[in-house]
């Protein structure tokens, strides 16, 4: 290798080394910037939380003062004032935005009711709030809470009572025999669920049938339909004693 080639190779190596150093410096700067951004976000979160806590304290003082005035004027008793303050704080800390999911009747998959429509209409009722249920009065949260399972049992009793009242007033009832036969012969397509008023479950069964037909010839869907049909005709399973509106099935 001649002197010129050696110089060129040496220069290229130096340039490559410089480029690597520049890339390393750039990467380090990017990492530092990202770390600084994370720190700034964390500081902003802490500041927002401090502001929120200050607002809560200020609102609590205002409500305590207002409640004390009502008690002094005799327009509220002390228990009423305490409940008023607690309710206002609940709705101040958790603004009355739309609830999430309505509590469904215990053990009933096909109960009627559309969560999305309920939210749009701000319907009063029991809604899930983490591990408990809280009552929404149509405009804001109330202090009424209970364990989720207890709320499901309560909602089921109310659902059944509403169905019985509708049946007593002459509402048309679905036939148990028709539902059972539809389940046995067409249950793999979810027709019996649709007949009972649960279109969503019926559509899911239809989709399940189409998916399993490619590699299991739809046998699981056939079994589900036959099992549901037997349950409906026997009339002992709570899931199939009423339609999605809560109306009892006629014999």
Total count of helical runs of at least 4 residues? 8
Counted beta strands? 3
* Class by alpha and beta content: mainly alpha
Contiguous runs where pLDDT drops below 50 for at least 5 residues = 114-120
Main β sheet profile? 3 strands, antiparallel
Strand order of the largest sheet: 1-2-3
Q: If you average the pLDDT, what whole number results?
A: 83
Helix content: 55-70%
Distance from N terminus to C terminus (CA atoms, Å) equals 103 Å
Strand residues, percent: 5-15%
| Series of secondary-structure elements, N-terminal to C-terminal | HHHEEEHHHHH
How would you sum up the global shape?
A: flat
What Rg, in angstroms, do the CA atoms define? 32 Å
Count of folded domains: 3
Write the layout of secondary structure elements.
Elements: H1 3-73, H2 78-93, H3 115-121, E1 125-129, E2 132-136, E3 141-147, H4 148-168, H5 176-186, H6 191-195, H7 199-212, H8 219-234
Antiparallel strand pairs: 1-2, 2-3
Helix pairs in contact: 1-2, 5-8, 7-8
């Amino acid at each position: 290798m001649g002197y010129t080639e050696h110089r060129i190779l040496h220069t290229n190596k130096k340039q490559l080394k410089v480029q690597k150093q520049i890339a390393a410096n750039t990467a380090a700067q990017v990492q530092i910037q990202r770390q600084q951004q994370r720190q700034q976000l964390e500081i902003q979160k802490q500041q927002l939380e401090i502001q929120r806590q200050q607002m809560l304290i200020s609102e609590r003082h205002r409500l305590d003062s207002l409640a004390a005035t009502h008690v002094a004027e005799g327009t509220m008793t002390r228990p009423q004032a305490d409940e008023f303050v607690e309710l206002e704080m609940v709705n101040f800390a958790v603004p009355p935005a739309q609830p999430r999911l309505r509590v469904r009747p215990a053990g009933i998959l096909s109960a009627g009711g559309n969560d999305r429509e309920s939210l749009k209409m701000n319907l009063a009722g029991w809604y899930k709030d983490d591990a408990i249920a809280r009552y929404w009065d149509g405009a804001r949260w109330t202090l009424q809470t209970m364990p989720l399972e207890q709320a499901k049992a309560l909602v089921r009793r109310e659902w059944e009572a509403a169905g019985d009242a509708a049946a007593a007033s002459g509402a048309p009832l679905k036939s148990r025999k028709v539902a059972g036969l539809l389940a046995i012969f067409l249950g793999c397509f979810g027709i019996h669920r649709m007949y009972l008023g649960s279109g969503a479950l019926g559509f899911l069964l239809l989709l399940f049938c189409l998916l399993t037909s490619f590699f299991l010839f739809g046998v699981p869907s056939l079994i589900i339909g036959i099992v549901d049909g037997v349950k409906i005709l026997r009339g002992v399973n709570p899931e199939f004693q009423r339609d999605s509106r809560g109306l009892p099935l006629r014999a």
